[in-house]
């Protein structure tokens, strides 16, 4: 069973390139990256901004989040601006294609913080007025009351953490909203951003059955907008819910039950006009999450804020190799580092060619369209998809069982295979590694992975 591993969600624009239709939803006509070629892979990036604070910690959550001890909104705003500026200058990107404010609970931030970060972006890179700017919202009365102000600040898409429409389940999950408040927030968000509201809903919850899940989905589909993200509850070690299940205080549905819940949701969403475009994401009327698409297509992204992750080439340092970067986790330490040296990057890993391709494979296969031949050639012109996977015994078995499809379009999962992706990935990754390492040593010697840990000065 696939477990959702990425939160979040780019409009793609660049000087001289047009890729938007004139529709209110800003539908993408074509993939400008594949049309323009790999040159633009380093000229453009999406931006993820992490707001680390929550009012309380949910029972299932192990994300990088903290309960604020005092109101430091002004300092956080200044530091988010400063780190954004530093990393934009380091990346030398000319265009930010989308911005995603995640957390934590970013709807606890002031709208002025959102506008300040967006203004900083606009001073250092092109940010189209049509670019997707998403904010995660906790559907509490406080969160709902600020939606209009967030829109004035530049947000044009909301991702609402509904999680459940069952009040008892919300209490078990430690959520601080009710089902009624969630429905009110969806209604207000749809009024402000029609067609650009996503709802997150979780299945595999304690005491949940397939029947109750079906009814809950039916209720949700009567009120939701054009995007739904499904999350399977995972028991993360160290969380309150994990301890409750370990001690038999709580029970969660068995794997075969959660698998049926997933398939039930796919069928129900399809019947309501939603197209599945990724393992956990469904959209109708082309209301896909463009920010997340940039992740799944292996594009650059810059991570700002405590614990944020990024993947980009630091051209400002003269490098031509993409790096995986992680910012310092603890907000107080991160603030000090940003104030001292302009950023809080704690860890940098230079990605070898194999690392890069492995990420492209894992992320690309999450999409229902999979990896096209043209897209793969952007990252690996030396070896085609057929050359990498066509002769593999394991892949042949997946093809014969109709779990995988390898044809003139590219490599992708079938409808049934998408639910089994986790079980197929180890074989795909092993075959990729084997084929890449069989290349002459000189071809990948310069790609050797190096790791550098950054300490505050």
Automatic annotation (TrEMBL):
**Which Gene Ontology cellular-component terms appear in the entry?**
mitochondrion
Leader sequence residues: none
Which Pfam families does the UniProt record give?
HemN_C, Radical_SAM
Which residue numbers delimit the Radical SAM core domain?
39-275
Gene Ontology BP, a term: porphyrin-containing compound biosynthetic process
Q: Which CDD domains match?
A: Radical_SAM (cd01335)
Chief subcellular location equals mitochondrion
| A GO molecular-function annotation | 4 iron, 4 sulfur cluster binding
Please give the SUPFAM superfamilies that the UniProt record associates with this protein: Radical SAM enzymes (SSF102114)
Q: Where in the cell is it found?
A: Mitochondrion
Source domain of life is: Eukaryota
Q: Which terms are listed as keywords in the entry?
A: 4Fe-4S, Chaperone, Heme, Iron, Iron-sulfur, Metal-binding, Mitochondrion, S-adenosyl-L-methionine, Transit peptide
Quote the function comment for this protein: May be a heme chaperone, appears to bind heme. Homologous bacterial proteins do not have oxygen-independent coproporphyrinogen-III oxidase activity. Binds 1 [4Fe-4S] cluster. The cluster is coordinated with 3 cysteines and an exchangeable S-adenosyl-L-methionine.
Question: What NCBIfam families does the entry give?
Answer: hemN_rel
Similarity remark: Belongs to the anaerobic coproporphyrinogen-III oxidase family. HemW subfamily.
Q: What is this protein called?
A: Radical S-adenosyl methionine domain-containing protein
Q: Please name the source species.
A: Scomber scombrus (Atlantic mackerel)
């Amino acid at each position: 069973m696939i477990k959702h591993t990425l939160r979040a969600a780019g409009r793609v624009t660049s000087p001289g390139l047009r890729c938007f239709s004139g529709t209110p939803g800003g539908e993408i006509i074509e993939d400008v990256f594949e049309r323009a070629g790999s040159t633009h892979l380093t000229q453009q990036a999406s931006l993820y901004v992490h707001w680390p604070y929550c009012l309380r910690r949910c029972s299932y959550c192990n994300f990088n989040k903290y309960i604020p001890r005092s109101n430091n909104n002004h300092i956080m705003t200044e530091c988010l601006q400063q780190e954004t500026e530093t990393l934009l200058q380091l990346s030398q990107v000319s265009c930010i294609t989308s911005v995603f404010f995640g957390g934590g609970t970013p709807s606890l931030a002031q709208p002025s913080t959102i506008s300040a970060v967006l203004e900083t972006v606009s001073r250092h890179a092109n940010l189209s007025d049509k670019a997707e700017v998403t904010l995660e919202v906790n559907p509490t009365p406080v969160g709902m009351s600020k939606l209009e102000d967030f829109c004035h600040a530049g947000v044009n898409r909301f991702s609402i953490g509904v999680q459940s429409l069952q009040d008892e389940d919300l209490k078990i999950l430690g959520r601080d909203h009710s089902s009624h408040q969630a429905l009110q927030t969806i209604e207000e968000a749809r009024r402000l951003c029609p067609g650009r509201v996503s709802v997150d809903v979780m299945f595999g919850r304690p005491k949940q059955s397939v029947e109750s899940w079906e009814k809950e989905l039916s209720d949700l589909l009567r009120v939701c907008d054009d995007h739904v993200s499904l999350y399977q509850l995972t028991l993360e070690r160290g969380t309150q819910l994990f301890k409750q299940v370990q001690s038999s205080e709580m029970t969660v549905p068995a794997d075969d039950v959660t698998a049926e819940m997933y398939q039930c949701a796919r069928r129900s969403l399809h019947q309501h006009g939603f197209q599945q475009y990724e393992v956990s994401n469904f959209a109708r009327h082309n209301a896909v999450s463009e920010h997340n698409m940039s992740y799944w297509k292996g594009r650059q992204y810059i991570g700002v804020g405590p614990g944020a992750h990024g993947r980009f080439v630091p051209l400002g340092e003269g490098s031509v190799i993409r790096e995986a970067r992680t910012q310092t986790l603890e907000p107080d330490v991160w603030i000090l580092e940003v104030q001292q040296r302009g950023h809080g990057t704690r860890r940098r890993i230079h990605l070898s060619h194999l690392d890069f391709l492995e990420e492209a494979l894992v992320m690309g296969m999450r999409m229902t369209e999979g990896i096209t031949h043209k897209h793969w050639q952007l990252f690996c012109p030396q070896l085609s998809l057929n050359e990498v996977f066509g002769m593999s015994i394991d892949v042949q078995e997946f093809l014969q069982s109709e779990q995988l499809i390898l044809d003139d379009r590219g490599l992708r999962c079938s409808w049934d295979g998408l639910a089994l992706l986790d079980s197929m990935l180890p074989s795909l990754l092993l075959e990729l590694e084997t084929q890449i390492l069989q290349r002459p040593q000189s071809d990948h010697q310069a790609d050797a992975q190096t790791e550098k840990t950054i300490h505050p000065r």
